[in-house]
Amino acid sequence: MRHDVIICGCGPAGATAGLALARSGRSVLMLDKTDFPRPKLCGGLLTWKTARLVETVFGETMADLTAAGIVTNASDRFVIRSSRGVLAQGALLHPFHFADRARFDARLLEHAQRAGAQIKTKSRVTACDPGKAGDDTHPARVTLADGTVLEADTLIGADGANSVVRNSFPGIDKARFARNMAPAIEVALAPSALPEPVDCPQLHVGLLEAGYGWVFPAGESVLVGICGLRRNNVNFSSLFRDFIDYLKIDPAVVPPLRGHPLPYGNALDDPTCGRALLAGDAGGFVEPLFGEGIFYALCTGLYAGQAVAEASGRASSPLYIDRLRRDILPELRWSDRLRWLLFRSMQLAGPRSLGLFVNSGPSRLAEMVHGLRSFAWLRRKRWSFLEQ
Ligand SMILES: Cc1cc2nc3c(=O)[nH]c(=O)nc-3n(C[C@H](O)[C@H](O)[C@H](O)COP(=O)(O)OP(=O)(O)OC[C@H]3O[C@@H](n4cnc5c(N)ncnc54)[C@H](O)[C@@H]3O)c2cc1C
């Protein structure tokens, strides 16, 4: 059987693409190697733009998700620290929310399923052929671990950082992608493991050359993590243990370390090939300064789904790339410039330089992180998904 669309991966990118396509009446098959709810290593921090997208597309407010126990915390304050103490802290006009990723992702997937997408979990994709656009005899194909081969007019790769779909694109620069893949380590601890209560997100800088650490509230737990680019053969496990030490946490209460790669400065200018489109981490769509990926997964998933629906049989790649160029790629490019400026200034002048930068305009910078302002000169940001 040939499907209109196969989506590989049922995380936020896949669920949003699946929802948009099912609503447009396409036959959509969504595949995932795991079953849902599945664990996902993530800080779960949601910005203002994420809340707006979830509300606009899924019809769920942060209050709805809080009532359902999916959003566990909200905070309208932040702290940025280095080993010398607090560099910046303050109140925010718009709160950050924190989601339990296992439950958040399962909830989004339920929406796609209710709209008519067919979900097939415990189905690992082992190989793909992106197919040939415009050639009816050459559909996209995916091969599952049990040998089943499935065909579709369009394939959406929403299969995360180590995407099998991306790796099937012949022209992809795998070495560049690997270079910008940041190792991330995160553990969940009991709040009592920390010397002080954690009621707002803490960012810790100066630990590594191109990255940062975090301590986030997460319901009954606290999440402690680090992520950064590989520079000078840094050993991330021992760096994480140093971070635990610096936070004055007893190493005996730390569970076995878990890690997952984060595409950190990897966004592909053209995430398409043949009949296939990449969305979310698979296309490297993560904001390269703070590592925000949930919003970019939702937004690129939405735009990929809408592009395929609108193309109705014609090539969807130009429509998708057009949306990415309008809304996503400029943001990621400007945030990449800003991060190197900040990382280099911290190398030259120490973490205090970051404090000076943040304190020069904390509310406008907070609006930039939330997506009310652009990373490009802090101009007011207009998101297409809010204007549709
Ligand atoms: C430690 C850590 C902390 C983070 N904290 C934050 C944060 O606080 N806020 C934020 O915005 N972002 C954060 N991120 C980034 C965020 O988690 C990702 O950007 C986001 O999950 C991307 O969504 P996605 O749908 O593209 O991919 P994923 O959420 O990774 O989903 C991909 C899906 O594809 C499936 N899959 C993979 N391979 C196959 C295969 N071969 N066959 C079938 N299925 C497959 C997987 O099972 C998975 O369900 C963090 C990342 C890390 C690693």
Helical stretch count?
12
> Termini, distance in Å?
34 Å
Provide the CATH top-level class of the domain at 2-63 and 100-177 and 265-351. Answer: Alpha Beta
CATH topology assignment of the domain at 2-63 and 100-177 and 265-351: FAD/NAD(P)-binding domain
- Residues in β-strands, percent: 25-35%
Helix content: 25-40%
Domain FAD-binding: 3-307
GO molecular function: FAD binding; oxidoreductase activity, acting on the CH-CH group of donors, NAD or NADP as acceptor
Protein name: Geranylgeranyl reductase family protein
InterPro entries: FAD-bd, FAD/NAD-bd_sf, Geranylgeranyl_Rdtase_fam, Geranylgeranyl_reductase
Describe the structure.
InterPro entries: FAD-bd (IPR002938), FAD/NAD-bd_sf (IPR036188), Geranylgeranyl_Rdtase_fam (IPR011777), Geranylgeranyl_reductase (IPR050407). This is Geranylgeranyl reductase family protein. One of its GO terms (molecular function) is oxidoreductase activity, acting on the CH-CH group of donors, NAD or NADP as acceptor. It comes from Pseudodesulfovibrio alkaliphilus. By secondary structure, the protein is of the alpha/beta class. The protein has a domain at 2-63 and 100-177 and 265-351: 3-Layer(bba) Sandwich (FAD/NAD(P)-binding domain), CATH 3.50.50.60. Helix content is 35%, strand content 26%. The chain has twelve helices and 16 strands. Helix 2 (48-58) runs parallel beside helix 8, helix 8 (294-311) packs antiparallel against helix 9 and helix 9 (317-349) packs across helix 10 (352-359). The longest helix has 33 residues, at 317-349. The chain is globular, with a radius of gyration of 21 Å. Bound molecules: flavin-adenine dinucleotide. Flavin-adenine dinucleotide (FAD) is lined by residues 8-14, 31-34, 38, 40-45, 124-125, 158-160, 164, 184, 186, 225, 260, 262, 280-282, 286, 291-295, 297.
